[in-house]
Every structure is written in structure tokens, then in C-alpha cells.
Write a structure and sequence with these properties.
The complex is a heterodimer. Chain A is 42% helix and 16% strand. Chain A is α/β, with parallel strands linked by helices. By secondary structure, chain B is mainly alpha-helical. Chain B has helices at residues 2-23, 26-51, 59-77, 81-103, 108-121, 124-128, 130-133, 155-179, 181-191, 193-198, 203-229, 239-252, 257-280, 289-305, 309-318, 327-342, 346-353; strands at 139-140, 231-232. The chains are: A alpha/beta, B mainly alpha.
């Protein structure tokens, strides 16, 4: 405890200094100095209340149910170290079971009844699509949707909505350019979820991989009545196509089923996976659970999967990982320290960045303006795209391979855009280290 | 005279609901609309199960039909709301008629299986023709408040009005139908099919008609829900919804329209209440199973305390008082009491399906 108390002073001083600096140079924003006031719905003199919809139970819950508690752990850490300009963040996340009709109701509760200042990190493409029009009609900031759909980047129709994680088109392009360069002339097949997630992903892949190399495209339905049987059939088709490389845009549960079907069919192509389905701890855990095995069964099955990541690798000694591990051990020690926890904390860090930039007594519009004027790169390996005309988040990622249950970086960080012809280029700017206070 | 009494009650009901809605905040108005829409679906199902004696565990499918009909009519034809609601009811009623023709040959668990199939299969249509139905993402549309209410009139309050007025109209129609020759025939059919057939009732036609009426109610409910949420997605009409409707019918009191109101209220209001209760009593929102377990507990308690459903319980509690009560309220109580006594017990039901 003593260690934390000692640590505690530094961020408070830093924050005090920061607020002084902001107060001094924030002439442009009228609300950047003075007494803390209830400047907007959800903001009081001492608190900021924000809300979210998350799958805490149901089909998408395994793994994803850790994200909101992880974000909340980071907010608690910030609250314990001075808060945002002295205000404490209250994070109210409601369970929508990944069912868009429930999302519709819980988001109305958050906005109409609880009067949250902003919606933060609402999880899921179909679920969030059901509420984005309503959130925008109510003019509530809709920050950092937990989905890589390129659809969040629509500043003219949805001015309040911002993406965060790299979108699936960019991700497809980065994975595709790696596969095109390293598996020249090999037969390639796609295994993907038949919705915006998978379709955006293979769109990006198609921009980089010559169509002549693609021998099969096998989409799965995430609402399939019998997922194991469906994946079995699709895997048999992949095997029949004699593909040597299979690229998957699939959620963890379907990745695990794919891997098990391959095993039972004696089919072993090089597996390439989008970041969504490749968190080693989630994936190996699912494999153990489905096959009713223990020990290193799951870990051995995911050995050698090629994937990409836009956050520092958990296995590295990176300063961000150290910071988040410390917070994890203090606030949510019962959860595994995996990719989902990292994701939740990283998104929460970005939110605090935006809140600090929005000023001492922000309105909802101040927060949107803050992100529209761009956020400095922090927790992600590549910069953000944020501007008044671009609501995409992280613009790049690095290729990695799963080795003994952790991600090992294979190449440099690469950035790209959403267009068919935009090049995939190396981003050589080093990622800034985590602030010693742990607060932006 | 029954009609006059029902209409009178309906007008009083409308006024009470409209005044109530104006006193509520936007989220409560939204919930009010949700409750009204759900009650319409539960009422339709309680007529099918409790009065005509047929089982459906696929009523969510008819709501799906009504909801998508509404979305497509608003998006492509921009018809006025009342017309859209009636059209949705007609489309869902047609679907119910088709199901009813098949159902007229089936009994007990076979009928349950057939309706179950409908609930599982129909939402897949939305994935099959993504261009028309929008796939997983569904269809978004907007409704606006009519001009005469003024620009500052809340959309949520208008939605609550539409749903409540529709609910009252559906209740008047159902209440009259149940007291008519058709309602009496359904009850005869339910209690003893052979005897009903020997008495000259057209069993098959009556069974199909019950499905049409019930599905049309579900269609109205789907339409109202779509207008409240301003979108339709296949995820809103899962098998779980169908089962929940069935739960609400049993909880409220089988075959009772007032029971449908109780069932609808529990279905819509109890889960969010429990979530808030759990959050404000120290359970972190991470322990997401607490509200779900609480809901299960509520269901078990209701069934233990009120085996005949909540309305049955209310009747039992008010029982000794009711005859003394004068006027229409007392009369309704007595009538409902009689109706509940007429509804078949669990044992009779098992005998018939066995």
C-alpha cells in the first residue's frame, strides 16, 4: 500500500501542474479555468457519469465481459489519483447480452434516465448500429465504439460517433500485404463472419492479395444454431480447396472451432487471424474448454498463428503493459491479464485524454470538439486519424506471431488508409512511453 | 350494452394513460410504450392459449412479421401510422392464418414443435435477403410527432400515446370478441373438442381463426415495438422473446386480459429494476448474473404464491370483498373471477395431451 501512496503524489502534482498550464494557455476555450460547475448533463462539480452497453452475459460474453471492468479499473485508478480536473469518473455499463433490442433499451435508459455525459466504448457492430442514430439525435458524444466497423467514420451523418480500434478494412490491408509478400504463389482461403466485421475485413484483404491466389471464401453465420457443425462443414470446404494459407476474420469462439475442426480433419494450413479472434489467452482457454482438455493443449494449438495488433504486446516489457499490469493487480486481480483487459484499459486511457483536452467545465460539444481537433498518440502503436472530417481511430498495426501463448512482434508498425489504392507504409515514429503518473 | 360498457371503460382508460404519460420523464414514457406493446402481444397469446386452448411457443415470429412490415411500409411508402399499424396486423394475421391451417391438424407437443420451428426459422429470412431486410443490422426508420402537437412535443410521449391508444383499442376488440359467439365457441372447443364438434361447431375453422386473431395482435405489438425503438433487427425477435411472452401469459393469469397487463409489466419493468437494485445494493455491475437470478426468483415466487397467475392471486385476495363492491369495478372483478374459474387447470391439460 505504501508504494501506491508514494506513487499517488506524483500524478496529483503533475495534474495540478497540467491544469495550471491548460488554464494559462487555454484562452480559446472559455471554460478552461475557474470553479468546477455542473457544465453539462452527467457532469457535476465532483463527478462525470458516462455509460456503456456491454455483453456481460450471452454469446459474446466470454472474454469481452472483461473489457468494461478493465476500463472501470483504469477510471478508478484515475479517480484515486486526482480524477479529471478533480472530478471522479462514474462508469455505468449495462448488460445488453449482445442483443440489439436490449441495446436499444439500455442506451435509452442511460441517456434519458441516467443522463450520462457520454456513451463510451459501446461494444459490438450490430448492437451499436441499432443505437447510433438515437445517440446522435440526442447529441450525446459517442466515443470510441468497441468495434472496428468502418461505418463509425461518418462525421456528416453521425457527428457524435467516433471509432477507436483499427478498422477492419485497414486491418485487412495490413494482414493482406504481409500475406501477399510472404506467401507468394500459395493458395489462399478466407474464413469470415458474414456481417460488416468479416465483409470489411475481406474487402481490405482483397485490396492487397491477388484474386488469382484466392481459392475459397467461406462465410459463417454468427447466429448459427449449431456453430460446431457449421464450422465443420466450412473447414471441410477449406480443406477441399487445398488452401495453404487460411485467413480468418472471426470472433474467438469461431476461431477455436475452426482450429479444432482442422485438427480433426488432419488439415494444417498456415492460419492468419485478425486481432479480434487472436487473443492467445482467450483462444487457448476456449480450446481447452471445448476439447475438455487441460495443460498446454490450447497453447500448443495456437502456436504459430500469424495475426496483427495495434496495442503493445502483453509479453513485452513495454511501459504501458507495466502500467496496466499494476492497475490490474490492484483493482481487478481476479480477471486474467489478457488482451481484453489491455483493450479496456487502453480505451479508457484514450477517453481520459479526450476529457482532459475538453477542458475544466466541458459541454458535450467541447468533448466532441476535443476529439475532432485530434488526440496525441498514446497507448496505441500507431497514431489516431481523428479530425473534424475523419472519425476513424488507430491507423496502423504490426504483424505478430503467437509463440508459446504470447504475441511476438514480427515486423515494424505499418499504417494505411481505407482506400483500395492507398499504400501500406512503415510508421517509424516510436510510440511514446506511458506517463510515469499513469494519467495522460 | 356490453359494447357500451367496454367503450366507456376504454375512454376512461385512454384518458388515464394519456394523463399519466404526460407526468412521466422521457425514459418512463419509452418504458410505458414498451409495456403497452408487450401487453398487446401477451393479450393475443393469452386468447390463443387460455381461451382457444392451442399452444404457441413461436409468437415472436408474428411480432417479427409485424415489425418488419411496419419498417418497410414507413421506409418505402411512408403511410400514416394508424394505417401502418392496421396493415402490419393484417400481414401478421395472414401469416397466422397459414400457421393456423397447419396447426389445425396438430395437437399438444406437435403444435408446440411446429410453432417453435417458426420462431427459429423466420428471423433467418432477414439474413437471407439482406438487400430488403438489412441482415443483422436490420432496418432503421424514423417517425415524427404530428404537427398539431407543436414542435416541442416529446417524441417519446407521442410514442407512448400511440402504443397506449392501440392497446386500448385492441383490448376493446378482444373483450367483445371473447364475449361473443366466437369467444364462447372457443371456450367450448378448449374444454371439450369432441363435444364442441358434436354441437355443430366448425372446429378447424375456429382453431384457424384463433391463430389469425392472436397473430394479428402480435403483429400490432411488433409494429408498436418497432415504432418505439425506431428500428427492427432479427436479434429483437429471438426464440427467447417467444418464451418470454409465454411466461408472461402464465404469470399474469392464463386466459385473462387483465392478467396480460400484469404479465407485460413484469416482462418489461422487472429486469431493469433488478439491475438497478443490484447496482445500488453493492453488487458491482460486473456480477451480471445477479439480476438474471433475481428475475428467476421472482418467477418462482409468483408461481408458488399465485398458482393461477397474478390475476388469480388478485382475485383470491379481493375475493371476499368483491361481491360487496358495487358498480362496474365489482362487476368486472366478478366476471374475471368466473372466467378464471372456467379456465382449465393444469391437470385437465395434461390429460388431453397425453
Amino acid at each position: 500500500m505504501a508504494r501506491y501512496r508514494k506513487l499517488g503524489l506524483a500524478p496529483v502534482t503533475a495534474l495540478a501542474a497540467l491544469s495550471l498550464v491548460l488554464a494559462a494557455c487555454g484562452g480559446g476555450t472559455p471554460s478552461s479555468s475557474g470553479k468546477l460547475q455542473a457544465s453539462a448533463p452527467g457532469i457535476t462539480a465532483s463527478t462525470i457519469t458516462i455509460g456503456s452497453h456491454q455483453p456481460l452475459t450471452g454469446i459474446a460474453a466470454p472474454g469481452y465481459d472483461e473489457i468494461a471492468p478493465a476500463s472501470n479499473a483504469y477510471f478508478q485508478y484515475v479517480n484515486a489519483h486526482g480524477g479529471v480536473y478533480g472530478r471522479k469518473i462514474i462508469y455505468k455499463y449495462l448488460n445488453d447480452q449482445y442483443n440489439s433490442s436490449i441495446t436499444t433499451t439500455v442506451v435509452r435508459q442511460l441517456i434519458l434516465q441516467d443522463h450520462v455525459f457520454a456513451i463510451f466504448n459501446g461494444l459490438g457492430t450490430p448492437t451499436h448500429l441499432a443505437v447510433a442514430p438515437f445517440i446522435n439525435a440526442e447529441k450525446v458524444p459517442d466515443l470510441f465504439v468497441a468495434s472496428g466497423c468502418a461505418c463509425w467514420n461518418a462525421p456528416s451523418t453521425w457527428p457524435e460517433t467516433f471509432g477507436w480500434q483499427i478498422n477492419y478494412i485497414r486491418e485487412g490491408k495490413i494482414l493482406g500485404s504481409y500475406v501477399a509478400a510472404h506467401f507468394k504463389g500459395k493458395k489462399i482461403a478466407y474464413f469470415y463472419q458474414d456481417d460488416e466485421f468479416g465483409q470489411d475485413g475481406i474487402k481490405g484483404l482483397g485490396y492487397e492479395i491477388p484474386a488469382s491466389q484466392v481459392v475459397a471464401k467461406e462465410p459463417y453465420n454468427v447466429a448459427a444454431a449449431n456453430p460446431a457443425a457449421e464450422v465443420g462443414t466450412l473447414t471441410a470446404a477449406l480443406k477441399a480447396s487445398k488452401a495453404q494459407v487460411v485467413i480468418a476474420f472471426a470472433v474467438p469462439a469461431f476461431m477455436a472451432l475452426l482450429r479444432l475442426s482442422e485438427l480433426s480433419l488432419g488439415y494444417s494450413p498456415q492460419l492468419v487471424s485478425s486481432d479480434v479472434g487472436s487473443d492467445p489467452i482467450t483462444l487457448s482457454g476456449l480450446l481447452d474448454a471445448y476439447a475438455k482438455k487441460t495443460g498446454s493443449f490450447g497453447t500448443s494449438l495456437i502456436q504459430g498463428i500469424i495475426t496483427d495488433s495495434y496495442l503493445p504486446s502483453l509479453g513485452s516489457g513495454d511501459s504501458w503493459i507495466k502500467l496496466f499490469t499494476t492497475i490490474h493487480n490492484q483493482y481487478i486481480p481476479k480477471l486474467p491479464m489478457d488482451g481484453n483487459v489491455l483493450y479496456g484499459m487502453a480505451a479508457a486511457y484514450t477517453f481520459v485524454q479526450a476529457m482532459l483536452k475538453a477542458g475544466r467545465n466541458p459541454t458535450r460539444q467541447d468533448l466532441v470538439n476535443a476529439v475532432n481537433s485530434g488526440l496525441p498518440q498514446g497507448v496505441s502503436v500507431a497514431p489516431y486519424a481523428y479530425s473534424a472530417t475523419d472519425h476513424d481511430g488507430i491507423t496502423g498495426a504490426y504483424i505478430a506471431e503467437i509463440e508459446k501463448g504470447v504475441l511476438v512482434q514480427l515486423g515494424p508498425v505499418q499504417v494505411t488508409d481505407n482506400t483500395p489504392t492507398g499504400a501500406v507504409t512503415i510508421d517509424s515514429t516510436p510510440q511514446p512511453p506511458a506517463p510515469s503518473s499513469g494519467i495522460p | 350494452m356490453t359494447l357500451a360498457r367496454h367503450v366507456g371503460l376504454a375512454i376512461v382508460g385512454c384518458v388515464v394513460l394519456l394523463v399519466l404519460s404526460s407526468k412521466l420523464d422521457a425514459y418512463r414514457q419509452y418504458q410505458m410504450a414498451q409495456v403497452a406493446a408487450t401487453v398487446v402481444a401477451v393479450a393475443g397469446l393469452t386468447v390463443l392459449i387460455g381461451i382457444s386452448g392451442q399452444l404457441s411457443i413461436g409468437h415472436g415470429a408474428f411480432m417479427f412479421v409485424g415489425g418488419y412490415a411496419t419498417a418497410l411500409l414507413v421506409i418505402h411508402l411512408n403511410w400514416p401510422l394508424p394505417v401502418v399499424i392496421v396493415a402490419s396486423a393484417v400481414v401478421a394475421g395472414l401469416a397466422g392464418g397459414i400457421m393456423g391451417v397447419a396447426a389445425a391438424r396438430l395437437r399438444g407437443p406437435y403444435l408446440a414443435g411446429a410453432t417453435l420451428m417458426l420462431a427459429v426459422a423466420l428471423p433467418a429470412v432477414a439474413y437471407q435477403w439482406q438487400g430488403v431486410f438489412g441482415g443483422d443490422q436490420g432496418l432503421d426508420f424514423t417517425v415524427t410527432t404530428p404537427g398539431f402537437l407543436g414542435a416541442s412535443f416529446q417524441l417519446t410521449e407521442w410514442q407512448a400515446w400511440v402504443c397506449c391508444v392501440a392497446l386500448v383499442i385492441v383490448f376493446v376488440l378482444l373483450a367483445n370478441l371473447l364475449r361473443s359467439r366466437v369467444g364462447r365457441s372457443w371456450r367450448a372447443l378448449r374444454d371439450n373438442e369432441t363435444a364442441a364438434a358434436l354441437a355443430g361447431l366448425n372446429v378447424a375453422r375456429l382453431r384457424v381463426l384463433a391463430f389469425v386473431v392472436s397473430a394479428a395482435c402480435a403483429g400490432v405489438a411488433g409494429s408498436l415495438l418497432a415504432m418505439t425503438m425506431l428500428n427492427v433487427t432479427p436479434g429483437a425477435f429471438t426464440l427467447a422473446l417467444s418464451i418470454q411472452l409465454l411466461t408472461a401469459v402464465v404469470l399474469g393469469g392464463l386466459g385473462s386480459l387483465v392478467g396480460a397487463v400484469w404479465g407485460g409489466i413484469i416482462l418489461v419493468l422487472v429486469p431493469p429494476f433488478l439491475t438497478d437494485f443490484a447496482a445500488s445494493h453493492g453488487f458491482s455491475s460486473a456480477s451480471a448474473s445477479v439480476p438474471i437470478a433475481g428475475y428467476g426468483l421472482v418467477l418462482i415466487l409468483v408461481m408458488l404464491l399465485f398458482p393461477a397467475g397474478i390475476q388469480g392471486g388478485v382475485r383470491r385476495l379481493l375475493g371476499p370483498v368483491a361481491p360487496a363492491a358495487a358498480g362496474p369495478v365489482g362487476a368486472i372483478g366478478r366476471r374475471l373471477a368466473r372466467r378464471l374459474e372456467e379456465s382449465p387447470g393444469a391437470e385437465t391439460r395434461q390429460e388431453r395431451s397425453g
